[in-house]
Design brief:
- Strands 2, 4, 6, 7, 9, 10 and 11 form a 7-stranded mixed sheet that branches. A 4-stranded antiparallel sheet has the order 1-3-8-5, with no helix packed on it.
- It is of the alpha+beta class.
- The protein is rod-shaped.
- About 10% of the residues have low confidence.
- The chain has a single domain, classed as Immunoglobulin-like.
- The N and C termini lie far apart (124 Å).
- It is 25% helix and 42% strand.
């Protein structure tokens, strides 16, 4: 009886460990910038990707998604809008979200795979400095997160640090300015009296 009890105890421990791991599994989101260097005045894009979208239930259907963007830091960006991936209909304006898409019927893992793009976000750099760009979803709003047919919405959460640099002064401008300074210095020289 004692070996059977140990076996049952080990099976229960393994099952509870598996369930605990499944409960904390979540899709992974990433943000990818279209340009490695961003200067003041530049317009650029950020692609929002999801990996392992169906990690909790490979048989479920994805019906849509929704999220907002947040910006912080010393630099400043202007959010210009989003382009939703063609897998989804764009419902961003209808839901007052920065990016939202809907698909009916939904998509399953066999149709779109476990990793795909949700949207492309468009920005313009306004001032130089570090900027933290984050996307997030409020799961209290049923239109936010990854929206599935059978399971609860999955939170969307990702961030990206960006460095916006000032526009360098072109070489020709430096030469012109140094020439003006030289002319100013020559014109201020005292005149010799003979």
């Amino acid at each position: 009886m004692k070996p059977l009890f140990k076996t049952l105890l080990l099976m229960f421990a393994g099952l509870s460990s598996t369930l605990a791991h499944a409960a904390v599994s979540a899709p992974v989101f990433s943000l990818t910038a279209s340009s490695a260097t961003i200067q003041v005045g530049d317009q650029f894009d950020i692609e929002v990707l999801v990996q392992d979208a169906f990690i909790n239930d490979p048989t479920d259907e994805l019906l849509g998604f929704g999220f907002n963007t947040q910006l912080s830091g010393m630099g400043a960006l202007q959010f210009l809008g989003s382009t939703i991936d063609p897998l989804f209909d764009d419902v961003s304006a209808d839901l007052s979200l920065d990016a939202a898409g809907f698909a009916f019927p939904g998509w399953d893992a066999n149709a779109i795979g476990a990793s795909f793009s949700l949207a492309t976000l468009h920005f313009q750099a306004l001032t130089a400095g570090d900027v933290l760009l984050a996307i997030g979803s409020d799961l209290a709003d049923l239109n936010q997160g990854l929206i599935f047919f059978n399971q609860d919405n999955s939170a969307i959460d990702a961030s990206l640090n960006l460095q916006v640099s000032a526009v360098p002064i072109p070489t020709a401008a430096w030469i012109f300015m140094s020439g003006l300074m030289a002319l100013g210095a020559v014109s201020r020289r005292p005149k010799a009296v003979f």
